[in-house]
Amino acid sequence: MKAMNANIKSSIADITLYMSEVGHAARHASRAIGKASTAIKNQALGAIADSIVEQIDGLKKANALDLAAGKEKGLDAALLDRLELSDERIHAMAEGLRQIATLPDPVGVISSLAYRPSGIQVGQMRVPLGVIGIIYESRPNVTADAAGLCLKSGNAVVLRGGSEAIHSNQAIAQCIKHGLKVAGLPEEVVQVIATTDRAAVGELLRMKQFVDVIIPRGGKSLIERIANESQVPVIKHLDGICHVYIDDEADKEKALKVAFNSKTQRYGTCNTMETLLLAESISAEILPVLAQMYLDKGVEIRGCEKTRSLLKANAIDVVAAVEADWSTEYLAPILSIKIVQGMEEAINHINQYSSQHTESIVTENYTRARQFLREVDSSSVMVNASTRFADGFEYGLGAEIGISTDKLHARGPVGLEGLTSQKYVVLGDGHIRQ
Amino acid sequence: MKAMNANIKSSIADITLYMSEVGHAARHASRAIGKASTAIKNQALGAIADSIVEQIDGLKKANALDLAAGKEKGLDAALLDRLELSDERIHAMAEGLRQIATLPDPVGVISSLAYRPSGIQVGQMRVPLGVIGIIYESRPNVTADAAGLCLKSGNAVVLRGGSEAIHSNQAIAQCIKHGLKVAGLPEEVVQVIATTDRAAVGELLRMKQFVDVIIPRGGKSLIERIANESQVPVIKHLDGICHVYIDDEADKEKALKVAFNSKTQRYGTCNTMETLLLAESISAEILPVLAQMYLDKGVEIRGCEKTRSLLKANAIDVVAAVEADWSTEYLAPILSIKIVQGMEEAINHINQYSSQHTESIVTENYTRARQFLREVDSSSVMVNASTRFADGFEYGLGAEIGISTDKLHARGPVGLEGLTSQKYVVLGDGHIRQ
């Protein structure tokens, strides 16, 4: 780890030149990793994990530099916590890489190879995207996770972490380089940008010739800025304003379970419910019980007029939801509740206010379940299940690099397959067009 | 057809307002078409086709206005030909729409619905993209084709044709509106922009809130300009610099057939071969015969030094290829030829100069065929088949809206499925996250 600090360049004279070298090297390395065998890629993942465990002291020393600088800069406790690399988190990083090694390799999978009337056989082969740029905030474990997913899916990656984690990220980068070398892969398959200069991000977003896709991870303002500025296509996840709709034909027990879990299982996650919609005819039966469950848990309720008067009649006072509440991602123990006539009004509300992340209906009605699944235009649409399931691990992707609320390419949790594309393959026997 | 001219607004006072109304109406209509049944969509396609045939005289009258204006503006013969709506072309438009009706509906198809350890069932459902903007040049038949493909795939579409075809496009738009009405669908599912003001394109490219993807169709300069300017994601096809590589283990007959057909079956198409690569050890056997075939057909050859001296020894003089030839899409009876050591050099040449459209290897060698398929990073990669097969109809997509040389979302011919995306669907029975 001793060469580590030498890799951090707080000022590089020519950022454009530096980034163009990074881009060029990434494109070149993408050819090698694109054709690397599954065994070699898994070997690299294992060797990186080994190196991370071996270098645990070095990683913690580098992390201590970031933590000290962070304290001096006055970062708040939550940020400092996210920045910290504890023994447990370092072992979890290594374990995450070993798990990625166990996932099926998506690259080279050929689907629907079929004969055409002309006699040629046509199919689609899954192929890496090429070079992926990832821009992320303080958690240094993203460096290992993102590198592992890109590597396994046959892509080269350029990582740009937050400046507050630069020492930690560079220390992890050394472990990654070591692992790539052990497996005989070019070190440039994974490059962690070695400067905190913000101009480097601007360059990355302009390098269309070297970078195939940008994935930003972090707060909404970071992602919005990157999406607006980038000339490279972006897979982005802006926010999660998720809804649960309790239909008038809902099973009461399921409704209570799903609505309670969707809000309270974790508050700060993007798949947490922010607005509960409730059919009017079932509201008297459900809402007073459910509201009490939320209040006992410490969740603040902001209700529509009907919600407020129904609860008031049950001796529960809640504040009025204002227009802005319907489009707010609280990420906190706050819930807005609206009573609607039925599913149609619920779907209209969702279409207007949802961030198209995840919506769930609770119903026993077959026709409405089918209709909700078809008509709600979100990346995950559920029946009788907690919105908290919208997650790469729960969906069986093994791991996720993010959750896309875009429509092109990948929607919802993006795992290894989301980091690939498909090309056409044609097999002939000297076939020509007539 | 009499109201037709009233729809053409050569100057709209407030283009921003007009386009925002178009965008708003498209977003609204996208909800209706997104949930429309297959039967209703097919009924609309049939009714549009009927209307086009019924209105053949009106269409030709409108087209005559465009042709007259085009002649006055001094458009060349090729452009005027592309602009013309003959009886045959009008019937072909209608027939194209009826064929789209026979294609399977991609919307709502659920794949890989499987139980997860948590007990939930997770799958992916194919869904429309939403609103598609299509910007295209002179051929008015694109108006009907593009509208049909978007409609069948459950999308609303905003079409912006070339100003030289405005009367023809508006006349076709009237037939489309009529067909949509017959099927009980909103007329705004297909909107053809009723002004030739170029500011409308600028607005379209900025309407992220209303438009989900832009598909430009036309020359390279149009597409480049749109891709650079657009804030909406673009599915684009820039150019087709396609290669055939004849390996030293090629079957001679197949090599001659594939290389000849790839160049000469049609010259002006994007899947036409522009550069032939040839393994040195087989070149003496193949090249003189093949070159004579090209020359007899009137194809100009531009050769590397080895090509020139080999052909000279066979009494054939060809001009020298210069560096620019390797990256030129001739779209004409011109072919550049390069002799390489073997497949590795061929792949390196392709990686450097190809537009990643279509490349084909001619070989009997099993290992090299597999390697070429895996390692060549183009949207179509072929073995022993003419590059001219890279086409939506030949691939069984039924129809195509374009050929994408991008990497995200769709690569190669884009048919109905390429105009859709996939969302996750989750089925539970009151399941919650632990």
Could you describe the 3D structure shown?
The structure is a homodimer of 434-residue chains. The longest helix of chain A has 21 residues, at 15-35. Helix content of chain A is 43%, strand content 20%. The first copy, chain A, has helices at residues 15-35, 38-54, 56-73, 77-83, 87-102, 141-152, 166-182, 199-206, 220-229, 252-264, 280-297, 305-313, 343-353, 366-375; strands at 110-115, 121-128, 131-136, 156-160, 190-192, 213-217, 242-246, 273-279, 300-303, 319-320, 334-340, 358-362, 380-385, 402-404, 412-414, 420-431. Chain A contains 14 helices and 16 strands. In chain A, the strands form four sheets. A seven-stranded parallel sheet of chain A has the order 10-9-11-8-7-12-13. A four-stranded parallel sheet of chain A has the order 5-4-3-6, sandwiched between helices. Chain A has 434 residues and is an alpha/beta fold. Chains A and B meet through α1, β2, α10, α14 and β13 of A and α1, β2, α10, α14 and β13 of B. β13 of chain A pairs parallel with β16 of chain B.
Helical percentage of chain A = 40-55%
Q: Identify the most extensive interface between protein chains.
A: A-B, 69 and 69 residues
C-alpha end-to-end distance of chain A: 64 Å
Multimeric status of the protein:
homodimer
* Overall pLDDT level of chain A: 94
Helix and strand run of chain A: HHHHHEEEHEHEHEHEHEHEHEEHEHEEEE
- Tell me about the biggest sheet of chain A? 7 strands, parallel
The tally of beta strands of chain A, per DSSP, is: 16
- Determine the structural class of chain A based on helices, strands and strand pairing: alpha/beta
- Strand order in the sheet with the most strands of chain A: 10-9-11-8-7-12-13
% residues in beta strands of chain A: 15-25%
